[in-house]
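Q: I'm writing a short methods note and want an example of a predicted protein-small molecule complex. Could you take the sequence and the SMILES for flavin-adenine dinucleotide and return the bound structure as tokens? Please keep the output block clean; save any remarks for afterwards.
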Amino acid sequence: MTALAGCAARAAAAPAGRARSVPTVAAKPTTQDWIAFARTVQGPVDLPGTAQYDRAKLVFDTRFDANRPVAVMVVQRTADIARAMRFAQRFDLQIAPRGGGHSYVGASAANGTLVLDLRPLHSVTYDPASRTVLVGSGASLYDVKAHLAAHGRAIPTGTCPTVGTAGLTLGGGLGVESRAHGLTADRLTEAHLVLPDGSSVTATATQHSDIFWALRGGGGGNIGIVDRAALRHARSRRPGHLHPHLPQQRCSPGDDRLGSMDPGDRPLPLGRRARRRHGQRWAARQHRGGDDSG
Ligand SMILES: Cc1cc2nc3c(=O)[nH]c(=O)nc-3n(C[C@H](O)[C@H](O)[C@H](O)COP(=O)(O)OP(=O)(O)OC[C@H]3O[C@@H](n4cnc5c(N)ncnc54)[C@H](O)[C@@H]3O)c2cc1C
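A: Understood, no commentary inside the block.
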């Protein structure tokens, strides 16, 4: 499991030349600490024992339904990521950033972590001049595909529309366009990230190039939380249709059309259709209080 450890910066700050002592264990945050923290951020901070928590901790894969993060914070603005990092550092909590929530190992719903659900930060901005698209850390692959398709442009992605663009890019990103356009990570030109001590850096090929190198394949849940990234887009190829088969437990018998990467396929996949056929559960996981079908 990868999760950002709030203790990293503290360890680095230990006085030099002193014999190594047994590390002091930070006190767990009390309910009052959580309440005080929640007042400083915009999104809800859901704690165990509430219905919101039970819903907010769920991710794509039902194998992780029993996982128990210490809290789930829904990030409504980038400034709150730094606040959460500092809070985690103070109490030695591990942070688990969550984009699309599709980690194969449930890293974005890991036990004992403070989950930062980044999905509200799903802006996508197309820039023809720089040939890049600026992607918020909560944008799904479908968000980016659909936005770029309107301009006849594309980035290489994976095949599942609800996978997070940040999560996929930071892990490499392999899909049907990879032979033509490379990995999604190859398209990354700039990443803005918040480090465990709450400071921010912009990483490019020439600026913090070591971080930039590490992000392209090893960035998921490591190094820092990417709040936005720029990716170089390419001319869109002839559109195709993909019908990924999702795990059995997600599908009604005979239904193999839950997901589609075809930007012309309206309404958006896993929106209205999912709610109608599969009840509220999946939709609630995907967009807390929102509507992904619009
Ligand atoms: C159904 C399905 C289909 C898939 N298809 C493909 C495919 O075609 N091609 C392919 O390459 N991969 C594919 N994957 C794998 C997928 O790309 C990875 O699991 C990816 O890491 C998921 O990203 P996410 O944001 O959806 O998941 P999350 O669980 O939210 O995040 C994955 C990891 O990245 C970290 N992370 C997320 N956002 C950030 C951020 N902003 N900053 C720092 N760390 C962050 C999380 O902490 C976690 O460690 C698939 C996975 C599934 C479940």
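A: Remarks, as requested: Residues 2, 60, 96-104, 107-108, 118, 137, 158-160, 163-164, 166-168, 170-175, 219-221, 225-226 surround flavin-adenine dinucleotide (CB under 6 Å). The domain at 4-117 is CATH 3.30.465.10 (Uridine Diphospho-n-acetylenolpyruvylglucosamine Reductase; domain 3).
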